[in-house]
UniProtKB/TrEMBL annotation:
<dbReference type="GO" id="GO:0005737">
    <property type="term" value="C:cytoplasm"/>
</dbReference>
<keyword id="KW-0560">Oxidoreductase</keyword>
<keyword id="KW-0862">Zinc</keyword>
<dbReference type="InterPro" id="IPR014187">
    <property type="entry name" value="ADH_Zn_typ-2"/>
</dbReference>
<comment type="similarity">
    <text>Belongs to the zinc-containing alcohol dehydrogenase family.</text>
</comment>
<dbReference type="InterPro" id="IPR036291">
    <property type="entry name" value="NAD(P)-bd_dom_sf"/>
</dbReference>
<protein>
    <submittedName>
        <fullName>Alcohol dehydrogenase</fullName>
        <ecNumber>1.1.1.1</ecNumber>
    </submittedName>
</protein>
<dbReference type="InterPro" id="IPR013154">
    <property type="entry name" value="ADH-like_N"/>
</dbReference>
<dbReference type="GO" id="GO:0004022">
    <property type="term" value="F:alcohol dehydrogenase (NAD+) activity"/>
</dbReference>
<dbReference type="Pfam" id="PF08240">
    <property type="entry name" value="ADH_N"/>
</dbReference>
<dbReference type="GO" id="GO:0046872">
    <property type="term" value="F:metal ion binding"/>
</dbReference>
<keyword id="KW-0479">Metal-binding</keyword>
<dbReference type="InterPro" id="IPR011032">
    <property type="entry name" value="GroES-like_sf"/>
</dbReference>
<feature type="domain" description="Alcohol dehydrogenase-like N-terminal">
    <location>
        <begin position="24"/>
        <end position="138"/>
    </location>
</feature>
Length: 331
């Protein structure tokens, strides 16, 4: 098979011919039909996340066709040959630690992640643990489904951790934001978008995705917010968001990596404001969101790149040259 391979952090991916992977017990072999590009992929490639398994095939928003499944001993197959399944960031957990037993498998200390410790979907073929694959809902073509598997899932979890907030501010209007904004509007919430100063295209995109107001990241919204969701990996947005939310409101950071948060006065946290992070996702998040997405229905804005152009897609994402999500398509 052909695959894009990370040989060392802070270096371009290399297109290589590799032996086709073979599934082990409990795993499925997939023909990759589409793989969306995530900012987390950038953090891995740019060396901002520590100790990736190298050499590594990145990519964790995989839509694949089941070619083969090897059931574990004493168990039957989960997916029929030819089924379309999605592979998310969370690729394996131990199942026995206190976090796993409490339904918080996203915090498992031994967890392994697709495109980080497990080869991912920047390839023609991929292997995944069948327990951590999701059936793709009918009505979502491959290109539309791929961004749901991280941008959609993390956005969904971030929104849930904001509670029942009505006025939602979204900082960083990229792949996750444009999906969660649609869910928030479907649930009757009001959306306020925050974009880079001077980025008129992003402002227009936020408005087109259901935001009733969109402005610069450090601009005060026209009303106090009940909660703020931060998807941009910029720590300086945390104090800005705290200033924008009312007393008792929440600021939820949805990314796996963020630049350092600058010091800020206690007064903007006081008033029982809550500041919290989102770590990964659970399989329950995936099941709930993929059942909800067709009801909204969630519409994904995608920018399509051939598999061999993965470095170009990453660079466009790195430099803010796209709206919506980038999706790689193998030949």
């Amino acid at each position: 098979m052909r695959a894009l391979v990370l040989r060392a952090p802070k270096s371009p991916l290399v297109l290589e011919d590799r032996p086709a992977p073979r599934p082990g017990p409990g795993e499925v072999l997939l023909r990759v039909r589409a793989c969306a590009v995530c900012r987390t992929d950038l953090h891995v490639v740019d060396g901002e996340l520590p100790d990736p398994r190298l050499p590594l095939v990145p990519g964790h928003q995989i839509v694949g066709e089941v070619l083969e499944e090897v059931p574990p001993p004493g168990d039957g197959p989960r997916f029929a040959r030819g089924a379309r399944v999605g592979v998310p960031w969370l690729g394996w957990t131990c199942g026995v630690c206190a976090y796993c037993r409490a339904g918080r498998e996203n915090l498992c200390d031994r967890a392994r992640f697709t495109g980080y410790q497990i080869d991912g979907g920047y390839a023609e073929l991929a292997v995944a643990d069948a327990r951590f694959c999701f059936p793709i809902p009918d009505g979502f073509p491959d290109l539309s489904a791929a961004p749901l598997l991280c941008a959609g899932l993390i956005g969904y979890r971030t929104l849930r951790l904001a509670g029942d907030a009505e006025r939602i501010g979204i900082y960083g209007f990229g792949a996750a934001a444009h999906l969660v904004a649609q869910v928030a509007r479907f649930e009757g919430r009001r959306v306020f978008g925050f974009v880079r100063p001077g980025d008129d295209a992003a402002r227009a995109f936020a408005l087109s995705m259901g935001a009733e107001w969109a402005g610069a990241s450090f601009e005060a919204p026209p009303e106090e917010l009940d909660a703020a969701l931060i998807f941009a990996p910029a720590g300086e947005l945390v104090p800005a968001a705290l200033r924008a939310v009312r007393k008792g409101g929440a600021v939820v950071c949805g990314g796996i990596h963020m630049s350092d948060i600058p010091s800020f006065p206690y007064s903007i946290l006081w008033g029982e404001r809550v500041l919290r992070s989102v770590a990964n996702l659970t399989r329950r998040d995936g099941e709930e969101f993929l059942a909800l997405a067709p009801r909204v229905p969630v519409r994904t804005e995608v920018n399509v790149y051939p598999l061999a152009a993965a470095n170009e897609a990453l660079d466009d994402l790195r430099n803010g040259r796209m709206s919506g999500a980038a999706v790689l398509v193998p030949p």
